[in-house]
């Protein structure tokens, strides 16, 4: 991705802060568009498909956490959270829902621009990448997941639904993590009314398809937490 013409959506309800961020980003060669509340941010994201979103947590109408969760349901647009909250639990919440970076106010606008360039560079490097864990291969660009196993080896394409693919790709990105049902709902299930237990149904079908393709026991339950991939180290 050429960051010199990247479009950045600045979702910040304080005009003075939005002005400073936009000025520094534009000085660095980025294009910017602004949203002063969460609903406007979601509407602009849908209409303009920005390359990066800088998102304040304490937004009117729809707060930053809800905006971030909806952006993750829609896809993988990089997001940097901007907030005055500096507690570790808030940083963990941002990363849990799927933020790419987290900047605490008061911040240096030059640093924010540098963070934006770094996140865009990582996003550009990962675009179209293939993730591999054990026998599983996930092509993020073509939305195809396969099991590559056996002495030959044989490749079996998994007949996954969109939600099953999202769940598998989300877990493969962090293969040693345990994921709660709530996190998988936020990151992978379209619509805002999905129940945590819905994940069990999707994972049951995903397990069956993995087993049929020659990768049994790849998704495991973690008591009291949720799910994680098998330890393939």
Describe the protein's architecture and organization.
The chain is of the alpha/beta class and 233 residues long. The protein folds into two domains: 3-126, Rossmann fold (3-Layer(aba) Sandwich), CATH 3.40.50.2300; 130-229, Arc Repressor Mutant, subunit A. Helix content is 42%, strand content 23%. The protein has eight helices and twelve strands. The strands form three sheets. A five-stranded parallel beta sheet has the order 2-1-3-4-5, sandwiched between helices. Strand 7 (136-139) and strand 8 form a beta hairpin. Helix 1 (15-27) packs across helix 5 and helix 6 crosses helix 8 (198-212). The longest helix is centred in the middle third of the chain and has 18 residues, at 109-126. The two termini are 33 Å apart. The model has no long low-confidence stretch (mean pLDDT 83).
